[in-house]
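Appendix B, Record 12. Input sequence as logged:
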Amino acid sequence: MVKATIQKITTTNNELPAISIPADHGIVQQVQCLIEMNYKAKRGQVFYADTVNMELTNLNRLLKKYLEKTLSSLIQDRIHKEAEYLLTETTLSCKEIAFALDTYDPPYFSRWFKKRTGLTPSQFRQKYQTLPDLTLKNF
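Logged structural output:
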């Protein structure tokens, strides 16, 4: 009985179609890696499209298909993630964070951040600092 079950499983596994990963998936991963490595210095979308040898329109179509986001929104999301990290994990001023993110206009950085979160950078930092410390010592 066990032998028959093993044979059935083996036969079933051999009948499964081969899983193929589309080439598009590799391009999406490459773009994500490029953003991670270059988001501070390279904000222009053309840099990313040229690096993966695609037209910007086609690259955006591909990213929308797999990630439901455009290249611009992926770059902005990564910058925002870094801004939140710097606000919560450092004592840098909002002005210093704006410069660290290559946004040389602190008021613009503040407006941009508020548009994305509903809070100014200072309000975000203050709200985060008032949250209870969720470390293992509390459990």
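Residues 23-130 form a domain with the Arc Repressor Mutant, subunit A fold (CATH 1.10.10.60).
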